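I am hoping you can look over what I have pasted underneath with an eye to the fold:
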Amino acid sequence: MPASDFDQLMMRRALDLARLGTGFTRPNPLVGCVITHEGRIIGEGWHRQYGGPHAEVNAVAAVTEPHLLLRSRVYVTLEPCSHFGKTPPCADLLIEKQVAEVVICNLDPNPLVAGRGIQKLRDVGIQVETGVLEAEGRWLNRRFFTLQEQQRPYVVLKWAETADGYLAGPYFQPVPISGELARVAVHQWRSEEQAILVGTRTALHDNPRLNVREWSGPDPLRLVIDKNLSLPPTHHLFDGSQPTVVYTYRERAARPGVEYVMLSEAEDLFPQILRHLAQRNVQSVLVEGGPTVLTSLLKDGLWDEARVIRAPHRLGGGVPAPHLGLAGLHEQFPLGEDTVFVYRRP
């Protein structure tokens, strides 16, 4: 039976609330909750930070007339948890408050939950409805679902290219390509992903900091491929300002803020990296280059989303950017003088 317009409106509100936790709840999912009584919102909340109260807890705490919870209808974007983690089970809280109905956007694929939260609610007579705005909920929590279902992080590729298709000058000489608004957007994207990855050549020539400066949000975990440990120790990546992981074929002891992960030369590189990140509960990684890294991930199908910033000026030669054509193009929009093309893996 299709969800009513009111149910969709309330779930959309819960999804909007969930989005406010972007960048702060990982590796937990984004969750929002709205509590209604006779068609009126009486409480709402979202999961604000990893380790803090969940959305249902914050929404219940916001209810100023607790007796109304007995006949309330609760909208939550993800199945209430049924296990003890950093906080007690949210399913138990809803049972304790004797809510009448619970409407859920997505089931939780985490084996610790996976239907148990719903069963707990139904066992005590609480009416449960699922699948309201399910596709929108999966998109919001695409990072969480990818890690849970595919045992790898959600991979976002990003590069800036000129109108004639180059992303660097001859011999990888760095050249300014995108405009000011695009640079701000890139820092926003960095704050939204849990890790950021570059290859040896990009780290060597660009000496990037890979932090968040033009936006407000958490810095990502820095990842760099340095197979033979050839990068200068004076580069920004080794300044200890934020956690950094170096993927290498050579053994080296850790230093403050820098961890070295030795990979096998007998296995493909990127499956090893993604497996290691999954083991660390890293939900997503933003890949900022360079061309060898980007092309390899595209060729192997180890990507989920690509964001291409195309500038209006031409370079006339240099390092060619990867070419995606129209396959998987999801949207495009202007950003100052540049245009952003967003692709999803077909």
About this structure: The domain at 151-344 is CATH 3.40.430.10 (Dihydrofolate Reductase, subunit A).
